[in-house]
Design brief:
This protein has eight helices and six strands. By secondary structure, it is α+β, with helices and mostly antiparallel strands. The chain folds into two domains: 65 residues, Arc Repressor Mutant, subunit A (Orthogonal Bundle), CATH 1.10.10.10; 84 residues. The chain is elongated and about 50 Å long.
Length: 162
Amino acid sequence: MDIPKVHYSVLVGFLEILNDLGGKSDIAGIASRQGLELDDLLPILDSGEMLGLIQVTSGDVSITEKGHLFIAASPKVQKKMLRDVVINLEAFRKLVELVKQSEKGRITKDEVIQFVSNHDITTPNADGGDSNEFNWIIEWGRQALVFNYDANEESISIRSFR
């Protein structure tokens, strides 16, 4: 199972840059123009593809139709679009189900980390291990309005969305 491994703002910034370049660029060229190493760019490309916002083909990256709609949308509509995608990623679907099955309607950070270690959710070469995965889950879960995170109790609950 996989989750996006790049900060939301970085991905949105990349989409805007790619849009400014006409919606398509060669990967090496965009890396060079933005002063990025390919190792820095790969998580952006992986996350953008995972969310259906970009497509990578033969060394080129282009914005998908969904990506164009995302960029053109208001922030509120972007959040709804993001929620619709993130909630359907296997890791988030399973976490939502885990929260729903909990007695208190929330699960702790430790329970999330246990879930991560039991479900093969990993970041290649990550220094933070399962704790790092927890941070990505919280970031994307909050950005997509899927989860609320209570830092005092270190727990997540499902966010109602309107």
